[in-house]
Amino acid sequence: MGSPPTWAFKITKINKKDMKTFFLFLFSILFLSAQSQTQFITKGKIIYEKKTNQHKPLEEDEDNKAWYEEIIKQIPKMVTDIYEIKFDDKKSVYKLTKENTDNKYWFFKPNESDMVVTDFTTNTLSIQKDIFENTYLVKDSTRNLVWRITDEHREIAGFDCKKALTKICDSVVVVAFYTDQIPVSAGPESFGGLPGMIMGLAIPRMYATWFATKLELIEPTIPQLNPNQKGKKVNFQQLNVELKKGMKDWGKNGHRILWYASL
Questions:
Q1: Long-range contacts at 235-240 (CB < 8 A, ≥ 24 apart)
Q2: CA distances (Å), 58 to each of 32, 51, 68, 81, 239, in order?
Q3: Torsion over CA of 251, 253, 259 and 263, rounded to 10 degrees?
Q4: How many Cβ atoms are within 10 Å of 15's Cβ, its own excluded?
Q5: Burial, 228: exposed, middle or buried (Cβ in 10 Å; 0-12, 13-18, 19+)?
Q6: Quick one: angle between helices 252-261 and 236-246, nearest 10?
Q7: What is the pLDDT of residue 11?
Q8: Most buried residue among 1, 36, 96, 177 by CB atoms closer than 10 A?
Q9: How confident is the model at residue 19 (pLDDT cuts 50, 70, 90)?
Q10: pLDDT digits (tens, 9 = 90+) for 140-167
Q11: Top-level class of domain 44-261
């Protein structure tokens, strides 16, 4: 058959020598391509569905069982409300989208004027909240929550979310699921402080959950991120002291009001 041409040996020798370099180069190209396809969202609007079990806390109150049994017959077990958060990398505004006139509430009725404005540049909160007959405007720094991030994951609204745990009011456990694909430290109510947007939230002792249903890629306007707010100006500590004074004899219901005020 004869000997193969000398150029064949040269090519074989070159291929073996440079094979490792070639695969490293190919891997780098693929890695950079995958990185370029990863989207980090820093502005938009997220819709949340909040569900609250109204019967559960009444069923657990043995002191007023007979009275609460009558109340339970008159109100729905579950109420659902739709909230939204508009955000960019500097601010977020969380509020009720529209009052549900079909819902019958036992404790707190959501109000369209209630809202939470978070300023990421100054690390401050501005919260308008109706509590019974009073409208408060809470001005304070963002919450210094101690989160414990776990290895548990859950998909919410198409995003891979990681589970984290914290507490409010010393003993009320809060469960959150956040995504680092939206690197904005915000979420439902005044919760934040995680390395990404909170897409799911649960507070078992309040029998309430908030879960994102969709993300809209919009750019909020300056007026939308700077809404007018009103109310009696207080910080978190002043609000807590004022509410405690008026609820000395409220028992368990008094604790629930403080939990609500802490959201």
A1: 235/138, 235/139, 235/140, 236/138, 236/140, 236/262, 239/136, 239/138
A2: 56, 16, 6, 20, 26
A3: -160
A4: 10
A5: exposed
A6: 160
A7: 40
A8: 177
A9: low
A10: 999 999 999 999 999 999 999 999 999 9
A11: mainly beta
What is d(CA 111, CA 113) in angstroms, rounded to the nearest whole number? 5
Structure tokens at 76: 């729905």
Which of 68, 93, 74 has the alpha carbon at shortest distance from 83?
93
3-state secondary structure of 118: strand
Cβ atoms of 54 and 79 within 8 Å: the answer is yes
DSSP character at residue 63: G
- Bridge partners (DSSP) listed for residue 208: 52, 203
- Residue 185 structure tokens: 């430290």
Encoded tokens for 207: 């029998």
Alpha helix stretches (DSSP H) within the chain: 6-37, 55-59, 65-74, 236-246, 252-261
Q: What is the pLDDT of residues 176-211, one digit of tens each?
A: 999 999 999 999 999 999 999 999 999 999 999 999
Residues of the chain by 3-state class (helix, strand, coil), percent to 5? 30, 35, 35
Rounded CA-CA distance 257/244 in Å is 9
Per the DSSP assignment, residues forming a β-bridge with 176 are 164, 201
Q: Which two tokens stand for residue 171?
A: 């003993």
Tell me the per-residue pLDDT of 71-90, one tens digit each, with 9 for 90 and over. 999 999 999 999 999 999 99
Task: Report how far residue 64's alpha carbon sits from residue 214's, in angstroms, rounded to the nearest whole number.
Answer: 40
Cα-based angle 160, 166, 172 (whole degrees, multiple of 5): 125
The CA angle 58-168-108, to the nearest 5 degrees, is: 40
Kindly state the tokens that stand for 27: 């891997």
**Phi, psi dihedral angles at 203 (to 5 degrees):** -125, 95
Q: What is the pLDDT of residue 98?
A: 86
